[in-house]
Amino acid sequence: MQEPSLSLLRPPQVTELIRKCQTGCVKNLTRYNLQFFRKLIEADEFYFRLVYSHIQRGKFFQRFDKLFVHNGRHVYNLRSDRINDSTRLYSIEQYVRGLKLADHRVLAIKSPIYTPTMLPRSKYRPMLLILNDHNKLLVIDFDTGELIDTIYLGSMERCKFTYIGWEKYMETILIQSTDLMAQTDGRVISYNILMSIWPLKFIACFDIECHIFERQRSTNISEGMLILSNPQPPDQFVNIYSLTDILDPENYKWYTDIDKHCTNEERCDECWRSEARVVGRDGHGFPTNIIIKTKPRLLLSILTCFPCIEFGYNPFHYIYSPPGQRDTFNVERLEGRVPVINGSITFDNYLEEHNKLLFHDDPVENRIISIESHKLAFYKIINNVLTRRGELSPTPPEFFDDLQVRMRNQRKAKKNDNMYKSFFSHVYDVDTEIFFVLGVDLSSDKPTTPVMCLFDNFNGQLLKKFPLNFKAEESNDYDLWADRDLLFINENNSFGPSRAMCYRLERLPIEI
């Protein structure tokens, strides 16, 4: 099927309007024609202009199109023209006084409604969820900053909840406690809460007890699986169980929800600690309504360097680091634990916080991404063989052809040959199917000037490349976020001020 061209788009007067205006300011449906918008990005007469740059001490938080500055207290729209008091959307200082915000305490949820519903629209507002230090879940309107609700999760005597995240496999909110071995006399490893959204509903609360899961210390839930690890320095022994078996109806003591009166006072662990009887209110948290009686089905048991194991692909595969080899990643098929041929990748100049092997965000393509020091490589499993399918890099491939020869001969070596890392960050824009790659072009004469490269997701073709007007540091961490005509760069500096930069797609000035 042939892609639509600009001449086929209607109405023509709207197309002409976009050509004459800055695309970030045009509010019409044509802007959301993704094929059309991709052609604007590829066009030579359009470029990404720096709209604003903001510097502060400490880390920036970015969630969708919102930027959280000053320790997450003040919220701005990324599409603004500047960051100052006049453009501030709202402040959450009154809700989080004394709380040190971190990534694991904040969750933003913003998604369209796909199914018809009889509930009021207010139930489907985009939400900002924050865990405070008193086991309370703050529900804030993501667009206006209005405090919608405050939900009490549980007694501090039982545990302290410090993590909130999105479990995409089950499309639920996951809230977890920290290590409770000392607080519960070694009986409970962690408490876990599952909630559904739109509207917020309580699903289950269960604890991981030591007499069921022997010799386990840390808990994680991902992709519908319960992941338990037991440190055996310098490695981790990881057991992965089925979460579906835990949520079996036979394990439920009773069902309840927010604002419902607790009907099982004799068996409820929250009723013992408080006189309140309304779930989620006035000192009565979510009761432990699931009891794990027997160990669930064991899906995988493995010894690895890191407790974090990547799952993906179709059929299901997993990526892990073998014992004692932190710079090596292996790919195996989950069913039968069949190793993939050529499925062991070892990184040169290994950086633990940078080099990774993970699954591509686009599940249709079924690809594996290797984040290397100077490149972003793509792999695909064909007939159980891991095959390299291409690579993306801010440096032209010709530069690496004779790199080893130049390094052996110091007279021919270039000053950029010794750079430890030239690939800083990347992001994949699903709407336009474009890879944004941030790094340094080693073949240029300015090794500290970063460049932004735009690549086609399917064939790796370089669509656009342009320099950025700031000085890059190898020791800093860079996060990218792209949304059609908007490009956001978050530079985190552990030893100095951090910086946030916003670029917007605009048309080159017309020379008269």
UniProtKB/TrEMBL annotation:
This protein's GO CC annotations: Cul4-RING E3 ubiquitin ligase complex
InterPro entries noted in UniProt: DCAF17
Pfam families listed in its UniProt record: DCAF17 (PF15802)
GO biological process, any: protein ubiquitination
Name the record gives this protein: Uncharacterized protein
